[in-house]
Amino acid sequence: MRSVTLSRTDWLAAAALWASTLLLFGSGAPHLGFYYDDAGYLTDLPSAGLPALAGFMQSAIRGRQLFVFWQYLFFNAVPHAASHLAVLHLLQSGLDGLVAAGFFLMLRLLRLPAHAAMIAAGLFAFWPIHGETHFWLTATCALLAPALLVILFASTSIILARQVRAGEARPRLRLRAIDAACFIAALFTYDQVFFALVGVLAARLVLALRRRAERPVVILAAHLPHLAALAYYLFLRPATDPAGLSVWRPDTLRLLRLNLPATISATVGRLWIRLLLLQLARAAWTDWVLALAVAAGITALALRLCSASQPAGVSASPGPVFRLGVLFCVAAYFPIWLWYISPRHHLLPSIGLFAAAGAALTWLLDHRSLGAKPVRVAAILFLGAVTAAFAAADRGESRLWEQSFTAKKQLFAELTPDLVRADVLVMDFPATLGPAMFITPHDAEYAPHLLDPHSFPGRVTGPVGGVPAPGGLFIDTSTAGGPDKIRYYPTTHPLIVRFTSWENGKARYEKIAPRAPYTVTLSDPTPHAGPFAIRRATARQEAGALVLSLDLAADLAPSTYLAATLSYFHENGFHRWGRLDRFFGYEIVPVLLGEAGFHPAPGGSQWQPTVHIPGFPPTPRIRLEFFQVSRDHDPVRLGEAETAVQL
Questions:
Q1: How many whole angstroms from its chain centre is CA 239?
Q2: Is 615 helix (H, G, I), strand (E, B) or coil?
Q3: How far apart are CA 277 and CA 397, in angstroms?
Q4: In what side-by-side order are the strands of the sheet with 487-490?
Q5: In this predicted structure, what is the pLDDT of residue 460?
Q6: Band of the pLDDT at 315, cuts 50, 70, 90?
Q7: What is the rounded CA–CA span in Å between residue 402 and residue 89?
Q8: Which of the 8 DSSP states describes residue 30?
């Protein structure tokens, strides 16, 4: 039996697919900018030396250390990366093209006919569901790089499996080294690849052991790098935070019940149709011209490949490829079903999805299935039209990302005079513009430095959203973070900006004067030695307000403050007191039990704050949780108290 080889035509077709993908996604590169995690990495990584890089990798999510390394190489490929975002997006589009070309070549190694592989690869390249992987720079290393590595590992696995089946001599060391490197690099870049990689590796081992080409000990020794990497990866994972990763949790079954229908809706159902219509509505006529030109080239190439004779060894049975594609799709989705689904998370499963589609097309376009050649040509032309629609939708989404970044730049340009005077920036803005990112917590912290480094030199910024307090602001107050993340920023020059509307592609806003939703009256503190203590806590309703009287003793560290979160009893349980935010859901409203300039005496103080909270929900009981808070550290929980509310 012949060795697995790719013809010159295969390589030329892959090059054409790469160029088409680069052209479609690269055309909007000068206007795409940075989003989400990009800002932090753009600020910190380009100037990091090796010790700093090692620190960043060490502090990354365990099992994703190489993601930070790829990000470092990516941003350092362009001098002054933040000033050359268009070049970075062109590199991103080029990697997009490599993924599409690699996918085509993998299908050819699976011996699908070239025309079916080309059509499936075109649909895969422009499938309009994971736009974040095209327009969000961080996705270059977090999603595109591991997807390419998985495709390369699957391809080397196909070659090795075929060599085992053919009874050839032991594979070359170079191929083994590339195979192991792709496996390890993908595994330690992004955790979504875990089950897909393990599935491919397990299939290889089972096949090799069944064929008995070598002794089991020899087979396992050849896969020692893969097995060692898996063992180390599994050793790292128990030490990770189970709240934010793909691990089994008490609510996993509930997540599965939510994520499985959401996956179907996002890929072939209502959510997918709604997204597609939104994207197509934003595509300009020039986008359609580009999409039609790209799709026409891919379709013409598929027709040419269909009319050419297939090289020797091409299988006419697509069933095994279809089954492998479905299994790969499920394995790639499984970690996300245990976590949460974002548009970018559809990229890796789509490798299996469109491999299965390529197998189905092989059956559909077979002579015995469609009969006359004109019918096959009509089917290929129809699929070319679908590819054009997908490509136009991608261009439409690109317009949304362009508008998002243009509005972001305009917003910070208008805020520049205020930023010069401010020492804390809080923004209440929508996080997305359609499927595109807009203003996220990272923007308030990093965007001023990147868009105009001279307008906001060295000052502290806060995330999106914040709750005014006496003499300052609480930030990180969303219920997603919980009270264990709140921080207090004492400041006399905050800048709070709130979104009002969109007008002609610009974000309109208003500047808010910070005002705490409560007042605190302090008695003169007296010295008190000892740890934190709640001596008395009473509450009463008075003229529609809650009046809280406390007698506390505490020994707080310098530059820290005492705060409390309140919960009120309603129906069958306690609910945290807070406020609804139209963009970020429910926010906790912490109470600062003092003033910005108040600090207990060294060794501890006793004081008696009285808190007046207008409009507090009527309730028979309240619960208080006390925290030591600061600007630079997560809060320290000190204790709690519960008391009845006197009517």
A1: 21
A2: coil
A3: 10
A4: 467-469, 472-475, 487-490
A5: 67
A6: very low
A7: 12
A8: G
Number of Cβ within 10 Å of residue 548's Cβ equals: 25
Annotate 126-179 with DSSP letters as a single string: H-TT-THHHH-THHIIIIIHHHHHHHHHHHHHHHHHHHHHHTPSPPPHHHHHHH
220-228: average pLDDT: 89
Q: Which of 239, 403, 312 is nearest to 5 (CA)?
A: 312
* Angle (nearest 5°) at CA 623 between 619 and 629: 130
Phi first, then psi: give them for residue 223, nearest 5 degrees: -105, 15
Question: Which strands make up the sheet holding 506-512, listed edge to edge?
Answer: 424-428, 494-503, 506-512
For residue 124, give both structure tokens: 């895969």
Checking if the pLDDT of 309 tops 60, the result is: no
Q: Which two tokens stand for residue 459?
A: 């000052």
Q: Could you give the CA distance from residue 538 to residue 550 in angstroms, rounded to a whole number?
A: 7
Gap between the Cα atoms of 324 and 301, Å rounded: 26
Structure confidence at residue 372 as a pLDDT band (50, 70, 90): low
State the burial class of residue 277 (Cβ atoms within 10 Å of its Cβ: 0-12, 13-18, 19+): exposed
Phi then psi for residue 252, to 5 deg, are -60, -45
Decide the pairing of beta strands 487-490 and 519-521.
Answer: unpaired
Write out the DSSP string of 307-364. Answer: HSPPPTT--S--HHHHHHHHHHHHHHHHHHHTS---GGGGHHHHHHHHHHHHHHHHHH
- Does the structure show a pLDDT above 80 at 306? yes
Question: The tokens of 112 are what?
Answer: 């699908």
Q: 549 with 520: CB under 8 angstroms? A: no
As a whole number of angstroms, the distance between CA 18 and CA 298 comes to 11
CA distance 266 to 605: 57
pLDDT at 218 (0 to 100)? 78
Pull the structure tokens for residue 60: 């990354």
